[in-house]
Structure formats: structure tokens, C-alpha cells
Amino acid sequence: MLSKVYLEKLQALLTAMSESESGDIARVAKVISESTMKGGLLHMFGCGHSHLLISEAFYRAGGFVPVNPIYETSAMLHEGAVKSSMVERMSGYAKHILDNYETRPGEVIIVFSNSGINSLPIEMAMEAKAKGMTVVAMTSMEYKSEKSRHVSGKKLYEVADYVIDTKIPKGDALVELDNGRYIAPGSTAVCAAIVNMLICEIAECYQAAGVTPPFFISGNVEGGMERNAGYIEEYRFRVKAL
What we know:
Number of helices: 8
Low-confidence stretches: none
Radius of gyration: 18 Å
Shape: globular
Structural class: alpha/beta
Strand order of the largest sheet: 2-1-3-4-5
Number of domains: 1
Largest sheet: 5 strands, parallel
CATH architecture: 3-Layer(aba) Sandwich
Mean pLDDT: 94
CATH topology: Rossmann fold
CATH superfamily: Glucose-6-phosphate isomerase like protein, domain 1
Strand content: 5-15%
Helix content: 40-55%
């Protein structure tokens, strides 16, 4: 059964990622916690399917409250899948996107890009660093040998302050079908796991500092929306998507 093959491949990737990246995940969580405990936001950006990881972290049950999703619709699939791929390869656009959000020096941004070779996520990392932000790249180092599409010749991991390697193989799809064709991508599942590992580590950092970690609870349980209301009021003027 190919479905079983997929699960086995995915489990192997998750194990490999956990064994090699847990230390970096803990370090990134510490940096995020130090920033957000001082009133900062955790910003997130990704193009195409990578924007799904932003939604994984934003405004959901068990989700970290001070998350600012940078939703750039021109780089998302629902406004044209082919167009989003072309936008991701554009140069000179990241600054206009980031300037549309309030960011502060010392805040952290996670840039998601499976390949890490396209111009927009690379330039987003560069622009964020120019604003004094700490850049975390969530990317697959399996693409390290691929040529950058950015004019600088640099790839995302080369301009980030911290790198979390997703271990995703080139091409993303995990299961060989026939004649070298592959199906069933793994990047979303693995990156979602990393996001939630970060969330767990952040919560531990807050508790170690004697601070109650700010997390949403489900709005579908009694009193949920009422308990979340205070967080929404606190962050709605900095987090556009609220």
C-alpha cells in the first residue's frame, strides 16, 4: 500500500529532523521567547504552499498569541497558482511587503521556503535583517547545491541568523509511483511539526522565566472566546490579520 509507504517515509523524516534539529529549535524558541516577553511579535512569511505553515501557527487552539502572519495574497495560490510561482521569483518586491507591516528591531521573523532558492523569500530575509530583526530560515538543506535565483547568488540559509533544516528531499514528494514519478509531498507535515515543536519550547521558556505563556484556547469550548478576548484586544492593533 502506497499510503503505508508514505507514512513510513514521513515518520523517518520526522525522526531524522528531530534528532538533528532539536537543539536549533530550542535555541530559536529561546530567542523568540526573549523577544516576545519584551512585547515583540513573531512574524512569519512564506510563498505558495509555505503560507500554510503561517496559518498553522496563527490564531488557533493551542497557538502562540503574538504571531503576526505576513499574508501576501499575490504570492498565495488562491489568486493564481502559476502567478504565485512567478511572484516568488521576483526581485525588489519584499521591501514593499514588509514595509506594510509594523516591525521592530529585535523581533523574530521565520521565513519558510522549502528550496530556499527563490528571490522573494531570500529578499524578505535580507529586508528583515536590514530592519534589525532576527531571521530564522525553515528550509531544506537538500537544496544546498541548487543555484540561487536571487541576483546576489545567495540562498535563504546563507542570509539567515538561524536555520532549521526540514530534511525534505529535493522535489518534496516522498513516494515513487512509476518511471521516476513521485507523489505525496512531505514538507507541510514536517514543517507543521517543527512549528508546534517551537510552540512547545516557547511555552517552556516562558514557564522557566516565571511568566504565563500566552496561548489561545479553542473557541469551540465553553468560555473559550471570552478567555481569548483579552489577547485579541491586546494585539489587534499590531497584528493586521486579527
